[in-house]
Amino acid sequence: MKKSTVTWLGRRFVLAIVIFVLGVGVFLIPYGKASVRIRSRSLARLAIYQNEASLAADELEPYRYTAELPDIELADAGWSVEAESAELPHGARVQRKRDGFSGIGYVTDLPAHTESALVIPVTVPYSQHYSVTLCVASNFPADGIMRINGATALPYTLSGGAEFIRITFYGIFLQAGENVISIDTGDGETECDYVEMNNDNSVYNIDFDIRAENCDPNASVQAKKLYRFLRENWGSRMLTGQYVSGAQNRELSLIYAQTGQLPAIRFGELGTDNDAAQIEAACDWALTMHGIVGFMWQWGAPDSGSVYAAESEFNLTNALDRVDLSALAVMSYDDAASAVSAGQLPRGVLPLLRDIDSTARSLRVLADLDIPVLWRPLHEAGGGWYWWGAFGEESYQKLWKLLFQRLTSFHDINNLIWIWNGQSTSYLVPVNTFDIAAVDVYLPPDHLFGSRYEQYLSLARITDGKKLLALSECSSLPDLEMVLLDQSIWSFFGLWYGEYLMNADGSFADTYYSSNDLYNLYNSEFALSLNDFLSVYQ
Questions:
Q1: Which site among 5, 26, 130, 191 is 20 to 30 Å from 288 CA-CA?
Q2: Averaged over 36-41, what is the pLDDT?
Q3: Residue 216 clears pLDDT 90, i.e. is over it
Q4: Rounded to the nearest 10 degrees, what angle do helices 41-48 and 275-288 cross at?
Q5: What Å distances lie between residue 457 and 37, 95, 241, 372, 469, CA to CA?
Q6: Do 220 and 124 fall into the same domain?
Q7: pLDDT value of residue 446
Q8: What CATH number has the domain bearing residue 145?
């Protein structure tokens, strides 16, 4: 239901007044267990920062955006279309040398490095979700992209060989009528035999049973409250989130200038040279704006300070070899040092404890104020590019256990909502040590971001439907209509900073999505901005 223009403008006016008042100066705010000195100048910038190259919210017609979705017709359907039935590009031909083809042959000699090198029209009988299977082959390793109606881009890789390979993409919504499937040829050749279409009901059949309590049995009052809110809104509304490049909140200012709204979640990074300023800005955000705080940890390797495995020689496996992790987690640093000197512990445990304890001191400021934190450490471990994931799943799982127990049991940091972002089934940690499963998704600008249904379904299966799911990092905004159509309603998303939102000069970057997309998302009834969150958070 659309809200009246008067109501919308009134909320914007109140928000602007609040931000202006916060810019008066430096003051003390009592909250929870302690008091913290807050600098409000960065938040005041949210109301006044506006680059001339940006489109101000005042220049847009103020309205609440409502997604318009087509009707879905659930029906059994299955058919295939032979590649040779399509209009072939110049130089392509129908071949019969390779065994196992269907029809009268397969299409070969497609032009290399060509977008839509082969275009295959398909007539779809019902508006619903389908699985789309490519039957393709290549004599040598090759990369390609399947596009749906020229927009949705689905990459594939062929290892090379004599056999045809079936590559299936799931959960693709197609409207009844004429649609187009095309193949972009990348490096190497792609020989196409046919395209197969089948109705795919998996998107409608995910059974969630989200754990009712925080994974930390000693979770703070506010951490319990926020987790309960996330759980109660699961599957119906998605929280907006934005990473900031620094304590100045330039990204939040730009979003406000573009949309008249602010994100519900301010995401920051720990492990940089500016942790104190990030913590202060996070307290500022939570205490004055009452927004949600999120942090990831860019944990530099103990020997090099770099997060990248290629730039570190620290051996995580050796550091935790034959270590009683539960005992180590609650051991003081001095006792651990004595145990190392006595040869009872590997020397590598000391820098691990040192770094965890240092980060705990940063988090303590938030914990003492009972500010809940969406906490995402040890991210993207399955990729192997970060040092904490480069030594395999066993070492990663040991480090996760040490970190979880030391923060929650030794340091009593109980305001954290734990996010596992291992991005691999084999890197899954015990279910009682995380609350949310998340995935990071970066796509080239010419790839339609959509809902990321396949990652959503994969995470749901990995966690057996017991965990909330989130887009912890993304290069583009989730597509509202596709998220709803695919029923892939993430708990929240976190848009990364830099080129994914802002040009170097501070203006809006339209490389990955338009200003209209940003406006519609932040002003929809489905995605919760800060105003929306505060109106329902009890």
A1: 5
A2: 42
A3: yes
A4: 70
A5: 44, 37, 21, 28, 10
A6: no
A7: 82
A8: 2.60.120.260
Same domain, 193 and 217: no
pLDDT above 60: residue 435: yes
Question: What does the block give as tokens for 374?
Answer: 């969406």
Total domains present in the chain:
2
Tokens 């300023």, residue? Answer: 277
Q: Are residues 483 and 420 in the same domain?
A: yes
Strand partners, 36: 29
- Express each pLDDT in 350-375 by its tens digit: 999 999 999 999 999 999 999 999 99
Mean pLDDT of all residues in the chain?
Answer: 88
Residue ending a domain, among 182, 200, 218, is 200
Domain match, 58 and 87 both: no
pLDDT-based confidence at 378, cuts 50/70/90? Answer: very high
Q: Which two structure tokens, joined as six digits, stand for 507? A: 């203006």
Q: Is residue 512 part of a domain?
A: yes
In sign, the C-alpha dihedral spanning 77, 82, 87, 91 is positive
48 and 130 in a common domain:
no
239 vs 51, higher pLDDT:
239
Domain range for 164 = 78-200
Residues 275 and 412 in one domain: yes
The H or E element containing residue 287 is helix 275-288
User: Would you say 227 and 417 are in contact if contact means Cβ atoms under 8 Å apart?
Assistant: yes
